Amino acid sequence: MQVLPLVALRPGEMAWVYAVRGGHGAARRLAELGLTPGQPVRILSAGRRGPILVEVRGTRIALGRGMAAKVLVRRQP
Length: 77
Hints:
CATH topology: SH3 type barrels
Number of domains: 1
Largest sheet: 6 strands, antiparallel
Strand content: 35-45%
CATH class: Mainly Beta
Strand order of the largest sheet: 1-6-2-3-4-5
Order of helices and strands: EEHEEEHE
Number of strands: 6
Radius of gyration: 11 Å
């Protein structure tokens, strides 16, 4: 299965968090938002610029593209 950054997904796609890149602070912040390995995530909206909107653990979260690029996911088959 292919591992790719969260920002590579299109609206409507679902995936599972595989890993989080970056320093301890970024990883901790993303974990606080519910983005932990094994967690399903759905892309709600993502334009070419600006933040992306995701749903994780029943909550909608807006992530900056830089932060979203730190989240590695596997697409749902």
